[in-house]
Amino acid sequence: MKLWEKMVSRILDEDISIEIQEPDLVIRRNGTYSVIRYIVASEVDYSVLEIDEAKLRSIIESYSSLLDKLPEASEVKVVKIGLDLDKFLKRLMNEMLNLKATIDVVEEPHVREKNRVKLEILRNIYDTILKGKKLTQLILVFKIRDSGRDLSEVKKRLSVTSSIVINVLRNEFGVVAREADADDIRNIVKYEIGLEPVIRGKSIVLDSDRLGCLAPIPRFKKPRYNEDSVILGSDLETGWVVELPLKILDKHILVLGPTGRGKTTFLASLIESLITMSNIRVFGIDFKGDLVSLLNGILDIVKPCDYPINVFVKPDVFDNIEWFTSVADALSNVLGLDKDFVMEILVKNRSGGGVKVDEDVLKKKLLLFSNISELVMVEPKYSDLVKLMEKNIVMNMDGYGSSFQNLYASLLIHIYRKTVVSRTSSNTPRSVIVIDEAWRVSKLKGLVELVKEGRSRGVGVILASQNPSDIPREIVENTNMVVMFGSINEDYQKDAQKILGVPAVIAKKLSYLGVGEALVINALNPHYVVLKVRPPVKLLSR
């Protein structure tokens, strides 16, 4: 009996039989065989230089599946050992020179190709070292355990599991592994009982970032899923989901980016999640009809013609001065009219408890309103409009003139603010208003007031626009989250730094973001997240 075998017997103080039957360590005690099958890594595949979101998900799923298939008490052992970088580089360069020489003289095409691939792998390692990336040398060992009275049956079961482990390591992790020989087993056991300071055997060298996948221990902490949140997409740098806690929704969100980068898709996905995964009421304003095309069937779609507004007829929830002020704010924002001038017209035409249209005055002064006549001559339906704000809806403004769109939307925001904010309390469902192409109404005083009041009344505001400069500073300062899509435009990136306070090194990332990718900036979290937007179901089904 060898020394290490005697030590094991003495430690256990039992009459046992220990024998190496490669690739197994077989322990016989009281007529039962306990067998450990050893698998060791021999080489790492460097043909995959980066792990994208899909690859990371595959690694996690594969590892979970692998653990499920292992018998109880099986182990995965990762042992870090010292790496002499100078010696490693010299050995690497010699091997590369030998491979080049072999490729030049060998005649068989398959041998030449095999050596060419190996040379490319070594070049990748060499480039990694030159770039200053950290390397880790380690020994990776799988110990698969099984037991039973029939040794041959135990070995058969271990062989099946061993084959699965080796295939998964090769295909999913890029690690070439093999079943251990007698020397491997002897060295591992000596290390484990303290006879050797390190495991003597074949080691692998890999960049430290990939060590987490072999362990596999992610470099980033996996967030816990919060039931009181909705999913925005996934983090491109870690692969984990990015969530929006509903409790910060009333702290408002800005969605910024050039046309075609994914703003509307993000809004549709967010609205879809809010409606299906929470009791938050959503009121949307869609100027171009793009949002409607992704949400039809999820919520009610309505048009301004079904819910007319008249600038000279106040809703019951307003008093006269409140309505006049709101109309003046809207007209000055849309048509550039002086607020005092608008107030003069409205006050002169006031009659009794309401407002009466004076035809003589209109002939002279309301010619300025010719392009928005639909909002002057119609009979309003305010009671229906107020009831509408208790539902999940999107107002589709597509097909109307721009002046009408802007004025109707401006008045709609004032009515929403007066109706929803005034009745919102801790006992009523929270609400959110979503405005695509918000630059059309962003200078509206009523919108600024809605943003300020909404923070304390449980009403969230989500604005989407093309540039940071479209949004007034008062709104930016009262907004906690910005979702900023990519652009190579330098002015866009400078605005991100100047207006939003994004560091220059982070703003540069905007140049490299693809369609559907955005930088998430959260005032409550110093970590900037690179988001891959989750498409809405309607888009996925196309």
Describe the secondary structure blueprint for this structure:
Blueprint: H1 3-12, E1 17-21, E2 24-29, E3 32-44, H2 53-69, E4 75-81, H3 85-105, H4 109-130, E5 135-148, H5 151-172, E6 175-179, H6 182-192, E7 204-207, H7 211-214, E8 229-235, E9 241-245, E10 253-256, H8 263-277, E11 281-286, H9 290-295, E12 300-302, H10 320-335, H11 339-348, E13 350-351, E14 354-355, H12 359-365, H13 382-388, E15 393-396, H14 402-423, E16 431-435, H15 445-457, E17 459-465, H16 473-477, E18 481-485, H17 490-498, H18 504-507, E19 517-522, E20 525-533, H19 537-540
Parallel strand pairs: 10-17, 10-18, 11-15, 11-16, 12-15, 16-17
Antiparallel strand pairs: 1-2, 2-3, 3-5, 3-6, 4-5, 5-7, 8-9, 8-20, 13-14, 18-19, 19-20
Describe the overall structure.
One of its GO terms (molecular function) is DNA binding. Keywords: ATP-binding, Nucleotide-binding. It comes from Staphylothermus marinus. This protein has 542 residues and is α/β, with parallel strands linked by helices. It folds into three domains: 161 residues, no CATH class; 239 residues, P-loop containing nucleotide triphosphate hydrolases (Rossmann fold), CATH 3.40.50.300; 72 residues, no CATH class. The protein has 19 helices and 20 strands. The strands form three sheets. The protein has an eleven-stranded mixed sheet. Strands 1, 2, 3, 4, 5, 6 and 7 form a seven-stranded antiparallel sheet that branches. Helix 2 packs antiparallel against helix 5, helix 3 runs antiparallel to helix 4 and helix 10 runs antiparallel to helix 14. The protein starts with a helix and ends with a helix.
